Amino acid sequence: MTLHVDLLLTNIGQLLPMRSDGPRSGKAMQELVVIEGAVLGIKAGEIAYIGTDDSEVTADTIIDCEGKLVTPGLVDPHTHVVFGGSREHEMALKQQGVPYLEILARGGGILSTVQATRNATMEELYEKASFHLDRMMTYGTTTVEAKSGYGLDRETELKQLKVAKELQENHQIDLVSTFLGAHAIPQTHKENPEQFLEEMLALLTEIKEQQLAEFVDIFTETGVFTVDQSREYLRKAKEKGFRLKIHADEIDPLGGTEMAAALGATSADHLVGASDEGIRMLAETGTIAVLLPGTTFYLGKSSFARAREMIEQGVTVALATDFNPGSSPTENLQLIMSIAALQLKMSPEEIWNAVTVNAAYAIGRGEEAGQLEIGRKADVVIWDAPNYLYIPYHYGVNHVNKVIKNGKLVAERMGIRD
Ligand code: IZC
Ligand code: ZN
Fold it and tell me: Which long-range contacts (CB under 8 A, 24 or more apart) does 385-390 make?
């Protein structure tokens, strides 16, 4: 019996199906199935065939992959993609040695983006975020998490979340929304962070009713929110039915990792200063470590998250861009894969698991994204690369040949005109 599909990718050099029944933790992150000489069929937006024999498959359209690498669309599980303005003027301050948290304490950094985001209309925020999401897609990302947190007041936080919801409905990329109202203390509440957190918690009923976010996140850091304030805040968010994320131990090692694991957070992110006990607890609880080595690189730090120890101890590790206008202005998850290889010493196999299977589980999409399986939506990338080792190796450029989202061709390698 022959199968008829809409689109057939033939002559695939290496196909990475990334099939897994759950997140890949510890040593299992080294597992990677490679199908050589593969064929992939897509029908009605879904994967309809995976094999090595195309004699029984007919198709409306055939793409000859000419021996290239084919993988699932990448999943970027930590971004701040909806924001106003930009912060290029802070680069000179950083070069003069002014630290990230000092710029924030002076009313710049996150607070400067808050001002720009408050001043922007919904349409402006939508257009700008849409531009960045388009760029992510051209780099092979087909599912992305997006945080609020540049409003720090009722009106602007809701405005940001509504923009994210419109993008989820209208943009081709799949978007998962996180409420990060607790991203910084606004100038008006400097003396009373607890009062501010109460105001942010008061938005949760509305956010839930209007389905504006699935996750709640907090920036637990020196000069921002303490571990005790964060625990109380996240506990209340959990009671209201939200899943949890945290910015933990990014700059100073405060112990947010342990707290998040104890609360059953879906992920704990950054973790540059995570303690031994924090790492042990991540392994024990299954809270996913979302590492953001592009941020460590961009902040000019020499010490990176201890990915090797995490993996050796059985932690589930995912990777993300942390795309934001301050500490990681890049949409390019391929670049993060290279930094993970060079600085986190992750193997290519671990890196591929971290940007597909594990990244999807880190945002509650493990059953839909990050894997190629019959019946799943067809989010597929064809790479200008002969094998999977090649992407982390050849750094800083875009290796995408074609991006297919829900079975549709949405991006292609830039060409040169004659
Ligand atoms: O805008 O600086 N770390 N939040 C916590 C950020 C970085 C985003 C920013
Ligand atoms: Zn972040």
Answer: 385/68, 385/69, 386/13, 386/14, 386/67, 386/68, 386/69, 387/13, 387/14, 387/69, 388/14, 388/16, 388/32, 388/34, 388/69, 388/71, 388/348, 388/349, 388/352, 389/348, 390/69
